[in-house]
Amino acid sequence: MPTQSLTIRDNLLTTGDDDPLLPQLIHAINHATEIEIAVSFIQPSGLDLLLPSIHEAIERKVSHNRQLKLRILTSDYLHITHPIALRSLLELDGDDVEVKIFETQSRSFHLKSYIFVRTDEEQSFFNGTAFVGSNNISKTALTDAHEWCLRFDYQQPDDSEQAKQFHNIREQFNKLFSHPSATPLTDEWIDAYIKRRNPPKLSVVGDSTLLDDEAYTPNSAQQEALEALNDTRDKGNVRGLVVMGTGMGKTWLSAFDAKQLQAKRVLFVAHREEILTQAFNTFAKLWPEKSAGYYHGKTKDKQKEMLFASVQSLGKEENLKHFAADYFDYIVVDEFHHASAKTYLNILNYFEPAFLLGLTATPERTDQANILSLCHDNLVFERNLVHGIDSEILVPFHYYGIWDDSVDYQEIPWRNGKFDPAALDAQFATTRRAKHIFKHWEANQQSRTLAFCVSKKHADFMAQQFNTAYAALGLKALSVHSESSVRRNEALTMLDKGEVQVLFSVDLFNEGTDLPSIDTVLMLRPTESNIIFIQQLGRGLRRHTNKTHLVVLDFIGNHRSFLNKQEVLGIKSTAVLSKHNGTLVASPELGEGCFINIDPQIVSFWQELSKQLRYSAKEEFENLTNHLGHRPRAVEFYRAGHDFNKVNKQHGSWLELVATMSNDADFQQLADEHKTFFLNAIQKMSMTKCFKAILLEAYLELDGFNHPPTVEALSAKSWHVLSRYPQLKTADLSEQNQRLAADSSAWLKYWLNNPINAFVGGNTKQGNAWFNNTDGKLEASFTVAPALIPFFHDFVKELVDLQLARYTDREQKKTTPLPIQKAVNDETLLPYYPNLKIACGHFKTGSSNDVEFMPIDMHNVSAETHFLARASGNSMNGGKSPIYDGDLLLLEFVTPTSAGSITGLTMAIEIQDESGDDQYLLRVVQKDDLGQYWLKANNPDYQTIPANESMKTFARLKKVIRE
Got the DSSP string for 883-895? Predict the structure, then answer.
């Protein structure tokens, strides 16, 4: 039988101001099994204060099979109830949840009553309380207005006068709730209400309800993003990824963008119902005239104009079939870093909206890699936490990396990229470690702290230790998790009011929770995932009254898993930190007002560890798997900065590495039977244009390995696929060819002469013909076992994504503008080329078209003989003078007559690969005793190549310009 009281104080009268009604309502909602509310008006500002506890109550009913009956009655009196609030009420989902609206017509309706009942599982009456007074549901009425409200409690026995009066209150509510004028709330009712609504311009006399008719406007970052989204659509893009740091308003951005596009039907997809609920409320506030509903669990509101769907429900093939592919003209996929899961892919591959927006808060290219491919490699807009801090959307942070000397992490078992949970629990729940944490917390904490723990047991232990240590000072801590007696929403309210100083949690606050009052974050657990680290950091960065900055106390131990802190915090080198004795003061990379302080012992450990680490391709694969939480796709490996030449040298190909690491029979069969195709036809495919990758993607979409398409169908499909990449289409097609229609004979001829010709072996005498043009159909020149075709198909797509990502990056580098355009003093202007290929082209033709110039402060150089170009790749990253990808190189043109002796020099060389395409390398030229020349890379992962007559030197390296 339940024993939890529905009340938190003895006084029966609540007067408002410093005695608000809100905490009492939240407590009662958290512990009631029946809730009955009847109020004259509801405003979004007040409802937003109650919704978190109402949602938690509904979640408990579903997940823990708890009792809950919720009935809410409001009115259209004077049209004060806001449509936004009505949309939010309509989304409350549950078998025993009813919301009605009392149509007043010419009558007044001044009820303000809140009734709560708590019963046991047998439904025998146990406890009850009612609040009757002057409080409508608005922020002012529930918090700081002078409002009187009298509490009336049920008292046993059931035939007592108090019990009879309480029953009478409920009976009167039931009469109103079943009155003919009380109509169920529906989207249609709200639509009609919006059309006839004419609310008063001022607050109602004698009532503290302030009308929430404020206009919602985008912040500075959202405005920039909206302009970028309009621009990308103008260029023809139908998908795009937006990266915005936690707290910068991703969900609001998607709502603003859907509205500026005037989308008729909107689909919002996420993996957690909490995120869907927040999105529902956001869209309803901005767009209350549109109907909205859910698609998850038992709720399937298929006809709503705005649908908020869980990926687990909508991603099932049988559910997707209920919608036409073009049913939604605007789709949002939130927390898009989850999007590589199969259910997400089902949704992305099925729908064809006018525009699809991917949203993520993760700033890392490693984590963005695969999702960027899903958005056609179109990164529309990116603003990380630093941008948010600089634009004053977020507060700055003061980060303290503290040496966790109370735990020897080397002794804790490490499996599959994670510490053993039981061993962590045992090591963390010690008085010694608690004292170490409290010492640093006491020295640096502010007023409201959120602490992330490794387990429920750890959170309970830390709260108990804190309360023991600080009880005499009047400080209090709470442990908050799914099994704690205090609900999450109630704990946050207590923290906000200063009744509690520290909340110890596990993962309830990682994602999708708004905690603006938090000003101190304690990281008491290892965070192997960079995404989780960013989410936890972001919990405290939202702006709040009197909050100047966030303090972050992060306890770092002696294990390589903690090296990710450097990457996430943007610390390029531990050498920088050691020069400052562990302190990195505010800098442009950190954001205005931020600083990082790393314990010197941590710096020493990092430096020693970095000396020992030189990973094999297998170890890089394992580390990335642990980091991502799944087997990395090729594009993710590429974005992580890893080298495919090392993969090829150590394992033969990417497919063979995957087969080795996955221990999967299908991958092994794929490697045994088709490794040559995957390596030579796709992974090492040379691309002077994007056409080969586009053709393969079109071939997959036509299910070509099962049903070979006609060349007409393939060329038309390729046209449509290429149109998804407007930047590549513009770069690789002449203006005349861009105007060709998909089904035109001219386009067919062009496509036959280019990528189709290349794949049937027409471009080179040496290359394999991977396909045959047989009777007008393009079919593979090899056989794939029918059972293997799905895996074959997926792996072709994986490598096509890799090639398109590489090629897109290359094209973007070409168009990246130079920051410096004019020479000053004695500087010399030299031609600048984004890479060696373009430089060689200009050198051979003598053309100066589209050449940019960059000033350089050096003597004995001239524009006639010298030029600047960017290094591409990692082949020269090694030895005493490594050349990094993207380094600026000073080179000197050479001719056969002016080259002189080239032995021992680093030269730019033009060669022809196996497919007949030109490639451009930077290599050291060496000569052996037999007079044979060799081209040697400084990076030992790259093979030394014998020189032959087809190779041409066109420039010698003079210097690497360190910018």
Answer: --TT-EEEEEE--
Q: Answer for the pair 883, 871: CB distance below 8 angstroms, yes or no.
A: yes
Closest CA to 843 of 774, 895, 883: 895
For residue 629, what pLDDT is reported?
74
Using a pLDDT cut of 90, give the percent of the chain over it.
Answer: 40
Residue 772, domain extent: 661-789+802-813
Q: What angle do CA 564, 399, 385 make, to 5 degrees?
A: 75
Dihedral sign for Cα atoms in the order 162, 167, 173, 179: negative
Asked whether the beta carbons of 45 and 212 are under 8 A apart, the reply is yes
Q: Are residues 842 and 764 in the same domain?
A: no
Helix H segments across 287-418? Answer: 311-314, 317-320, 342-350, 365-374, 385-390
Please give the Cα distance from 518 to 535 (Å, whole number).
Answer: 14
Please tell me the predicted confidence (pLDDT) of residue 564.
Answer: 61
For residue 213, is it within any domain? no
* Whether the Cβ atoms of residue 621 and residue 415 lie closer than 8 Å to each other: no
What's the domain count of the chain?
A: 5
Tell me the C-alpha to C-alpha distance, in Å, between residue 947 and each of 541, 899, 911, 950.
Answer: 57, 16, 9, 8
Task: Render pLDDT for 191-206 as a digit per residue (tens, 0 to 9).
Answer: 999 988 887 654 544 4
Interhelix angle 44-63/273-286, nearest 10 degrees = 160
Average pLDDT for the chain: 83
Tokens of 816: 């990246």
Domain co-membership, 467 together with 608: yes
Residue 730 lies in a domain: yes
| Residue 640: partners with Cβ closer than 8 Å, 6 or more residues away | 365, 366, 369, 620, 624, 632
- The verdict on 34 and 132 lying in the same domain is yes
Asked if the structure places residue 547 within a domain, the reply is: yes
| Contacts (Cβ under 8 Å, ≥6 apart) of 941 | 643, 645, 646, 649, 874
**pLDDT band, very low/low/confident/very high, at 278 (cuts 50, 70, 90):** confident
Tokens (6 digits) for 323:
């919608």
Tokens 């044979």 -> residue: 932
156: CATH: 3.30.870.10
Entry pTM: 0.67
Residues 431, 493 within the same domain: yes
The pLDDT score that the predictor gives to residue 570 is: 61
- Residue 871, domain CATH: 2.10.109.10
Tell me if 850 is assigned to some domain.
yes
Show the CA angle centred on residue 138, arms to residues 137 and 139, nearest 5°: 130
